[in-house]
């Protein structure tokens, strides 16, 4: 016990706040170790960054490609919308179907084949497409009066 007290005695005698050479050396070694660890960590991150460069470049290229595709799709849609006929009335313009005959309707000889469609209808649809005429549904014919059936005398005699 006495030896331990003798060893601790000089430490107790020192003024508070003053450090021994041993303490200074120990703190300096700890600081150097911490700095070395930080340097090695930075170097490892730099190496990792170098290894990640290829994947980062690939990710950037993919992102640019997606953005370019979206931009092109947006431009195509805008062009389609601008070239499409506008909605003038209640009804929307409907593109006419192809004017062809079914295989059952075709004649035996191609010489007797007659052209399908109507020039008047084509011109009318063209005017609708160019927003010069409003597209409409055909007006339904309404009768102003009901048809009355009257039995004639001659019909009654027959039955």
UniProtKB/TrEMBL annotation:
Entry-linked InterPro entries: Nop53/GLTSCR2
One of the protein's GO biological processes: ribosomal large subunit assembly
Region (Disordered): 1-40
Keyword Nucleus: yes
Gene Ontology CC annotations of this record: nucleolus; nucleoplasm
Family assignment from sequence similarity: Belongs to the NOP53 family.
Protein name: Ribosome biogenesis protein NOP53
Origin species: Orthonyx spaldingii
